[in-house]
Amino acid sequence: MFNSRFMRTTSLLILAGLVLPWSGLQAVGLDNRRTPVVRAAEAAGPAVVNIFTEEAPRGGQSPFRSFFGDSFFRQFFGNPPNKRKSKRRSLGSGVLINSKGYILTNEHVIAQAVRIQVTLLDNREYEAQLIGADARSDLAVIKIDSKDPLPFVPMGRSDDLMIGETVIAIGNPFGLNHTVTQGIISALHRTIRANRDQVYSDFIQVDASINPGNSGGPLLNINGSLIGINTAIFQDAEGIGFAIPIDTARRIVNNLIEYGAVRRGWLGVSVQDLTPDLERYFKLNQSGGVLVTRVSPRGPAGKAGIKQGDIITSIGDHRVINKSDYFQALSSYTIDDVFNLGALRDGVRKNIRLRLSTIPPGYAREFAEQWLGIRVSTVDLSARRRYRLSAEEGVVIVSVLPNGVCGQVGIQPGDVIRRVNRDNIRNRADYEKAIMEAGKLSSVVLLVQRGRSGYYVTLEP
């Protein structure tokens, strides 16, 4: 009897010993499942928003209208017949970056929007106000007002990213709310041509899925910090995604919140790529850099001592190999930013400190004449009679330097400039403003009207 009771007691103790550790194992297993990726997604998810926009009506128009512009198209082809038009809705993502309700997203997500609606993870809905947008960087800031506390994702840094590092993308792909994907950083400093006249530089390439609707959502590191803004610029890409580095976005965001636009600085030089012949001529021991071909005496570079014939090799922490590097590095700074510019002069390395400034008032006309080799006038009654113009808007070219960039591509007096890059030109003020903005880029695209024909020309001054 004693033995049987002992055996039953022993069996119960053994079972208890088996059961208790199993409960512990279950708890341990749950902890193991909550990986850093899970924790990052849980922490950031509430701050990721879905963006719904209503865009201006587009129904019933020719595909050529967007190419030439409404006024240009209407002048030659007249108004199309009235058709019922409906507003298009688009989907995108964004991320709250502070408790005040500021949301960072892509510019192309909210471009042309007449109404912006934001939905949070907890299904709270808000009407959003556009604070500022910048097409060149594809970034925009919108804002929502809430009486309740708002979650946000702290900004990290992108200057120390590593290839192979784990990243997490959260967004609204194809309208599927709050989707989380994981991957690694595949490459850094990627230059991407999105279309004929839009090139993005210094992108992060990842293998996490970034599809239409993910645009504007956050790219996180394993700690849940914001290191980039996802952008679905290649809709047909498989296994490849891109993101704008947060260090680039931070400067843009500050400008958009404070001014509503990006106040890009002016250096006051023109540059060109180095060819093998030029590298031999300048007896360079290293490859890379851009050659200074023109210096404005009133510009920051001229005042700091930069001269024609200098070779710029770095801007701040950015190494300059070619013109693309040069303009990308310059675009990361804004007015009044101070940085060191590395240059070579007669084989001697120089380190020049300078401050970016605004373009002096009244300089646009002088700059355009030097840069493009043309002089223009307003399209007024006198100009229309003299050149027999059918155009009522734009600027008419009154003189062309034969050796200038415009003269070399066949532009003539009497031609009318109707667009500079993406900016429609109605008058001289539009032209001078657009030319000064174009002067900060590596090339400029002009839409030129001659008679009743229009054509595009790409110039690389």
| Whole-number mean pLDDT | 82
Structural class: alpha+beta
> What's the helical proportion of residues?
25-40%
**How many domains, as an integer?**
4
* Assembly state (oligomeric): single chain
What is the tally of helical segments? 13
Shape: globular
- CATH architectural arrangement of the largest domain: Beta Barrel
CATH class of the largest domain: Mainly Beta
* Largest sheet: spatial strand order: 5-4-1-2-3-7-6
**N- to C-terminal distance:** 106 Å
* Annotation, overall tally of beta strands: 25
CATH superfamily heading of the largest domain: Trypsin-like serine proteases
Q: Which runs of at least 5 residues are low in confidence (pLDDT < 50)?
A: 12-18, 58-84
- Cα gyration radius (Å): 29 Å
CATH fold descriptor of the largest domain:
Thrombin, subunit H
Largest sheet: 7 strands, antiparallel
What this model shows, in words?
- InterPro entries: Chloro_Bact_Ser_Proteases, PDZ, PDZ_sf, Pept_S1C_Do, Peptidase_S1_PA, Peptidase_S1_PA_chymotrypsin, Peptidase_S1C.
- One of its GO terms (molecular function) is serine-type endopeptidase activity.
- It holds the Pfam family Trypsin_2.
- Keywords: Hydrolase, Protease, Repeat, Serine protease, Signal.
- Belongs to the peptidase S1C family.
- There is one protein chain.
- Helix 10 (363-372) crosses helix 13.
- The chain has four domains: 43-143, Thrombin, subunit H, CATH 2.40.10; 166-259, Thrombin, subunit H; 269-355, PDZ domain (Pdz3 Domain, Roll); 363-459, Pdz3 Domain, CATH 2.30.42.10.
- Helices cover 27% and strands 33% of the residues.
- It has 461 residues and is of the alpha+beta class.
- The chain is globular.
- Residues 12-18 and 58-84 have low confidence and may be disordered.
- A seven-stranded antiparallel sheet has the order 5-4-1-2-3-7-6.
- It is built from 13 helices and 25 strands.
